[in-house]
Amino acid sequence: MRHTRTPLLLCLLTSAVLALPGFAQQPVSRPALPAPRPAAAAKTTPAKVAPPAARAGTATTGRTAPKAPAATTRSTTPTAPARPAGAAATPVSAPKSAKAGIYAPPSAATAGPKPAPAKPAPPRPANLGSTDPNIRYQNGKTLIGQLRYELAMQELEPLTRPGARFERAPEAAYLYSVAATRAKKWAEAEQMLNLLRTEYPAWVGLPDAFFLQAQVSFEQGDTDNALRVLSQLPADQLGPERENMKAVYLPRIKDKLQFQTLLSRYPQDAALGRAYADKLANGGWYTDADKATLDQLITQLSLDRTRYTPRPKPAKKSSYNVAVLLPFEFNDPGWEKVRKNQFVTDLYAGLRIAQDSLQREGRPVQLFSYDTGADTLQLKQVLALPELAGMDLIIGPVYKSGSKLLARYAQQRQIVCVNPLSQDGELVLDNGWHYLFEPSSATQARQAAQFAFNQFTARTAVVLYEDTNDEAAFAQAYKTAYEALGGKVQALRRINSDVDESVAAGFAGIDLKSIGHLVVASDHRKAGPAVLGAIQAQGARVPLLTYASWMDNSRVSLGQLDSRDVYFIHPKYLDKTAPGVRRFRQLYLQRQNLPPSVFAFTGFELLYYFGSQLHQNGAAFQANLAASGPVSGSVFQGLGYPGGAHDNQYVPITKLERLDLEVLNPVGVR
Q: What angle do CA 626, 631, 637 make, to 5 degrees?
């Protein structure tokens, strides 16, 4: 009997997948055209960046926007070398603080429209938790429509059990899975979909469940299972939807060997073949050994040979050109703007010192700096400059909307670009030319979970996270990674540290003496005292894993943190006794008459590392990065992009021992 999809399930099926961030329209490889000038420039939101460390020898985790340092006048500000000959634009006049050689396009004359006031949230159903299963079922549908996915899961879960004998139990299980996927609770969604397929095998909507299962598998990194599940769907159902799903997720595969294995298992999968051909031709993966494979795919899939012919690998050069796209904002010389943008000045000063260091070592790079301002209009003007297409590496920008624009440009022009400050892993999901200098939040969670699994004998955990999107994503990524290793997260609870009752509820019913470790994903100044107080109240000695920013919290003493088993996720840790850190500090003081901030260290490490990659491997160095593991940094503890990763995969875990910080997972010890 042919399956007929009800309007409700069809709507949920489409929106459950396409509404997720990963199903936004993908960039198309085509020549970049001058961007149309919008009526007004809209201000953008800064990407999540790392604030400067407040204590010597430590650094915060970079989970909040940079704060302006104390008002200080720099005696010198770094200057940039002259722009390339034949530049299409001449630097505009700038205030005295702006240095020659930094291109600053004219800013928009008018401000953008004011945002419309937020609409009030719709009221929740009045009869939540009803004993009437039909009411709970309707509540679940209503809550999904209101984007209250966790509440929807709570309403629907009792209806899905076979013992409940609810006539619409399969639909309830499917709706629960939809809510779980929208909340990015992949493990819960997978568990419910397995129950649906096992307990209700005759349900007419089972193809929809298979389709959703494929998305969950893709999100969990199990591409093989996703393709296998999609292949089990009837051939005449969900054909375009399947191809769209593959088109989104297959380009995210970052391991070349994994791609080759999948091709051997699914040789007739056209979407898989196209995705691999695109990686070879346009993603920086191609080597001479891939010629036969690429030719076979072009013939087999009738691909456009012109589009899928790799560009010749750039020859090594004696000197490389690096574009620096940062919001210097020279059109606003006011002291408030100068203070706000101090992190940009520091970052650029670090880049300049790295340039000098590389020059002394016989590996010169030329820096060409451009003021991108705080709006995308100014960035588009910079990207329209012909000279930018001749760069070997692009560094920047720091705003999320600008990062997406530059990522598309870099992919089209096949120029590696590195975002210096963002921890948003979604920026580099499916772009072989875009890297994050920082480890993403998800990578920090995975590496912390790996450390905890290896470090703590008891394989159980409780995870508390602050009521923000970033911390929720971190907590979910931690749970997924820890349980994939074989551990068990017994509770995953959201807290609001501004509300004492919320923190107390987070610990309700939890015996801290019986769990292996506690994870607290919160930078809130009240979280530290509240958590340590709860541990003390139970007389527990449970290991605690949290952010390094706790050491900068005036409400928590270092002695308190030292006396307990507190472990810090510390991506920006700097060992002030290390020779490289001491030397950089000395050079920076000589030039700037001020000690360096963490942003200055970041600028130095970024250019020194990627500038060295340019000289060692040429401008298309992705394959070399993928084949090497993390290495010790010049100032930071480590840096590396193994296995095709596009964010830094090394995350230091530190611990106070007699008030001195120790790195417990140095490079080479995982």
A: 130
